[in-house]
Design goal:
Elements lengths: L4 E5 L5 E6 L2 E8 L16 E3 L5 E5 L9 E5 L5 E6 L6 E3 L4 E2 L5 E7 L7 E6 L3 E7 L6 E10 L2 E8 L7 E6 L3 E7 L6 E9 L5 E7 L7 E5 L5 E6 L10 E9 L5 E7 L7 E5 L5 E6 L13 E2 L5 E5 L9 E6 L4 E7 L6 E9 L5 E7 L7 E6 L3 E7 L24 E4 L5 E5 L9 E7 L2 H10 L17 H7 L15 E5 L2 E10 L7 E7 L7 E7 L9 E3 L8 E6 L11 E7 L2
Parallel strand pairs: 1-42
Antiparallel strand pairs: 2-3, 3-35, 4-5, 5-6, 6-7, 8-10, 9-10, 10-11, 11-12, 13-14, 14-15, 15-16, 17-18, 18-19, 19-20, 21-22, 22-23, 23-24, 25-26, 26-27, 27-28, 29-30, 30-31, 31-32, 33-34, 34-35, 36-37, 37-41, 38-39, 38-42, 40-41
Length: 584
């Protein structure tokens, strides 16, 4: 009366999988750009994680009016279009969403709105998107960059407009709406770059790409009273503060100093890495040379090890760019890695520290097919190319547009999740050229088994490559061979006599090292009826449940575990056992 059934269940097979050194690459959504499509196109302003674990982002085009869209992606890879931008509310997202403390997200758009100078919009995961404040006029036009969250206020910068026509800083709160903070001037610096940060003196600090005494850009600060003052006027290739065209936000180091980069300036006009002491004294820490690492196009980031990291767009033996490290305790720097071209070239966009201690980033050129790449770096593994974009599988982040009209380059974005999976958006490529949302899953023990035993890490979990009636996921979990008929067979249920009576039972092999599968033994009175769990092994762990009998011992060796029914067989006309194998 027993009828053993072995079944495997897996997540949906990924679209356009590509092997990577980190695991597998999956396109979660192809942004189409078609009129009426909720997917939109050119997702280049970055995205963020919500308290629900999902990722929220924006697209710059597509949708019914071709003005862009707002979307959500879950960790399982489910994509949902939440809303479409409109001219009255505002469009052209110019900064990644930030949480507003009430379950929603705030982000700037650079065009439209009641004032014509852009707006602040709010994402509600349930109801969609709505405007919360119009910009323009004294508040500034064309806000650039992610908002800075600060004790209930959300502070941003606009690249144009304001009292002097050179931009402004503004802030938003639920109680007061949008408020003027400070105006930008030619003297203090115009066309602000990146997100503001708060210094140890309580003032907000930022960089500008233009303006200042010499027109080469500035570092400025805004005090609590809203007064904006110039800290440093960059002087180009010579002078007291060599540098030109500051890039990215500043980094505040534990020593109290600010560090930043300029794309140009210095003696070779190849850019500089600079330091500003708490007193305001400016010094060049690294003057990039014409033949070496040069032209940093992205800001710096503070690593979990207390070191500061950044990239240059050129330099190295292939002149494809470099990854650099600065020790703020000594102001000493070192080139950690050189990009090879074939593995990626022209690193742009912010580096992202992962919880695993690695740094993650993107290249807008190079890779195997020339469409850019995603990379990681760690002290143990060095520089690794995680995926080379193929064009149809995604293209160089930033390829959907050079800049936002004010010179701010948007390069998509990547976010590492708690389990080490990377989620990202690329502004170009995809099946219809509108960009992609993608996932890079780290190599699991099952992936390694596919690569080394099956010979194809891209093989589907439910494939039966040797046509023996058992799919790969089950063969992996139970220690069977995928390359021919096994002498061993999947476990079957049998009648076993216990002191309590005769019951169905099954002997199940469990490998503690296979921590990426779930084994579930179930019983039912009907194949189509309700199945009851008798024993469950999560992630290679010990079986638990009312049906466990014996076999669980310590150590890492494979053990055979006995799982039995909870009822005597004499009480039923039919009874079914099954072992189900899943990927968590």
């Amino acid at each position: 009366m027993s009828s053993p059934i072995q079944r495997a269940r897996s997540r949906s097979a990924p679209c356009s999988p590509e092997p990577t050194t980190a695991g597998s690459y999956s396109v979660l959504e192809n942004f189409t750009g078609e009129n009426g499509s909720a997917a939109g196109s050119v997702p280049r302003a970055g995205f963020t994680t919500g308290t629900d674990g999902a990722f929220y982002g924006t697209a710059s085009a597509g949708g019914p009016a071709n003005l862009g869209t707002v979307f959500r992606i879950t960790e399982a890879g489910a994509f949902t279009g939440l809303a479409n931008f409109s001219r009255p509310d505002g469009w052209f997202p110019s900064g990644a969403p930030v949480e507003d403390g009430t379950g929603g997200f705030l982000f700037p758009v650079a065009a439209g709105g009641d004032g014509g100078g852009g707006a602040l919009l709010r994402i509600d995961p349930t109801t969609g998107v709505s405007p919360v404040a119009a910009l323009g006029g004294m508040l500034g036009d064309a806000p650039d960059g992610r908002l800075f969250a600060d004790n209930g206020f959300y502070i941003g910068v606009a690249g144009a407009g304001g009292n002097a026509g050179r931009g402004a800083a503004f802030r938003y709160s639920v109680a007061n709406g949008a408020e003027f903070v400070a105006t930008a001037t030619t003297s203090t610096g115009s066309v602000s770059e990146g997100t503001l940060i708060r210094g140890s003196d309580g003032a907000l600090y930022g960089t500008s790409r233009e303006g200042g005494t010499f027109g080469r850009g500035t570092v400025y600060k805004i005090n609590a009273a809203g007064t904006r003052t110039r800290v440093v006027a960059l002087t180009g290739t010579a002078g007291a503060a060599p540098g030109q065209t500051a890039r990215g936000a500043l980094v505040l180091a534990p020593n109290g100093s600010f560090y930043g980069v300029a794309e140009r300036g210095g003696a070779a006009d190849a850019g500089v890495l600079f330091r500003i002491l708490p007193s305001g004294t400016y010094s060049v820490v690294v003057a990039f040379g014409a033949g070496g690492p040069r032209s940093p196009r992205s800001g710096l980031v503070m690593g979990g090890d207390g070191m500061i990291y950044g990239t240059t767009a050129f330099g190295g033996s292939a002149d494809a760019g470099t990854l650099i490290q600065l020790n703020p305790a000594s102001d000493s720097s070192v080139v950690l890695a050189e990009f090879t071209g074939s593995g990626g070239a022209r690193p742009e966009g912010d580096l992202v520290p992962g919880i695993d201690g690695k740094l993650y980033g993107t290249c807008v050129e190079g890779g195997t097919d020339g469409f850019g790449s995603v990379f990681s770096w760690s002290a143990e593994a060095g520089l690794e190319t995680l995926v080379s974009f193929t064009g149809e599988g995604g293209a160089a982040p930033g390829a959907g547009g050079v800049d936002d009209g004010l010179g701010l380059v948007h390069t998509g974005g990547i976010l590492p999740s708690a389990d080490g999976t990377l989620y990202g958006v690329a502004a170009g490529g995809g099946a219809k050229g509108g960009g992609v949302a993608f996932r890079i899953r780290p190599e699991t023990p099952f992936d390694t088994w596919k690569r080394t035993v099956v010979g194809d890490m891209g093989a589907g979990d439910l494939e039966d490559s040797d046509r023996d009636g058992t799919v790969l996921l089950v063969e992996y979990a139970l220690g069977l061979s995928p390359n021919g008929f096994d002498q061993a067979t999947p476990p079957a249920a049998d009648l076993t006599v216990y002191p309590e009576g005769t019951r169905l039972a099954m002997l199940v092999p469990r490998d503690p090292l296979k921590n990426d599968v779930r084994l579930i033994v179930e019983v039912s009175e009907s194949l189509s009826g309700l199945w009851t769990e008798l024993g469950v092994s999560e992630g290679g762990g010990a079986f638990t449940g009312p049906g466990y009998v014996a076999g669980e011992t310590g150590g890492s060796a494979v053990r055979v575990v006995e799982i039995r029914d909870i009822a005597n067989i004499a009480s039923f006309t039919q009874r079914f056992f099954r072992l189900r194998v899943e990927r968590p």
